[in-house]
């Protein structure tokens, strides 16, 4: 029996019959991709799921949508309260008794550690760092425009409440009231 000869290229080029990737090359590429993903995915997951600043912004958006829906459904104005000195927020209905309102205030939701409301803008009026701010959700389905700046360390997220709340904007930086609601659009 004659031994079959294999052609070996001295230039490193493969013939048409040998075109493609070898199993070893594919395994090396898959291992490299796996190593890169092992570093990137946990960081991405932490940024998306455990970022308390964005989680707080999403919580406020959900609360605002819920209050708007409750106000329209029950035909009563609802109010979102912020106590910036205590770093908490709560909601109430306009027709609540003083006792029920105090109960809601005592059950206020605290912001996560390190997260605080830097300020809330209502047009030219600005509420900062201390005191209480209120955002009223009308039984007719609208809210007065407001911009809430939430801060953690040096980072700021802006939550913009538009009058008819079709969309509540979240911005990854500090955006002023006049930038979001120009005077010509008010």
Describe this structure in words.
By secondary structure, the protein is of the alpha+beta class. The protein has 4 helices and 9 strands, in the order ααββαβββββββα. The chain has a 5-stranded antiparallel β-sheet, with helices on one face. The protein has a 4-stranded antiparallel β-sheet with strand order 3-2-1-6. The longest helix is centred in the N-terminal third of the chain and has 27 residues, at 23-49.
- Number of DSSP E strands: 9
CATH superfamily: minor pseudopilin epsh domain
CATH level 1 name: Alpha Beta
Assign the CATH architecture.
Answer: 3-Layer(bab) Sandwich
What is the terminal separation in angstroms?
A: 94 Å
Offer a quick outline of the entry.
The chain has helices spanning 23-49, 52-74, 98-106, 177-180; strands at residues 78-83, 88-93, 109-110, 115-122, 125-128, 132-137, 146-152, 155-161, 169-171.
Key features of this structure:
186 residues, alpha+beta, minor pseudopilin epsh fold, five-stranded antiparallel sheet, 9 strands, elongated
Topology diagram in text:
Layout: H1 23-49, H2 52-74, E1 78-83, E2 88-93, H3 98-106, E3 109-110, E4 115-122, E5 125-128, E6 132-137, E7 146-152, E8 155-161, E9 169-171, H4 177-180
Antiparallel strand pairs: 1-2, 1-6, 2-3, 4-5, 4-7, 7-8, 8-9
């Amino acid at each position: 029996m004659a031994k079959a000869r294999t052609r070996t290229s001295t230039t490193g080029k493969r013939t048409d019959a040998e075109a493609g990737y070898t199993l070893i090359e594919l395994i090396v590429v898959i291992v490299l991709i796996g190593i890169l993903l092992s570093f990137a995915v946990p960081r991405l997951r932490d940024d998306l799921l455990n970022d308390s600043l964005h989680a707080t912004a999403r919580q406020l958006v959900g609360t605002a949508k819920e209050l708007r829906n409750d106000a329209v459904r029950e035909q009563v104005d609802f109010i979102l309260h912020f106590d910036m000195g205590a770093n908490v927020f709560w909601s109430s209905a306009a027709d609540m008794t003083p006792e029920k309102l105090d109960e809601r205030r005592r059950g206020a939701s605290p912001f996560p550690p390190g997260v605080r409301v830097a300020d809330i803008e209502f047009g030219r009026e600005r509420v900062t760092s201390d005191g209480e701010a209120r955002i009223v959700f009308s039984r007719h389905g609208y809210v007065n425009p407001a911009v809430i700046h939430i801060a953690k360390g040096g980072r700021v997220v802006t939550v913009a409440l538009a009058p008819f709340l079709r969309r509540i904007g979240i911005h990854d930086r500090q955006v002023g009231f006049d930038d979001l609601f120009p005077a010509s659009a008010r």
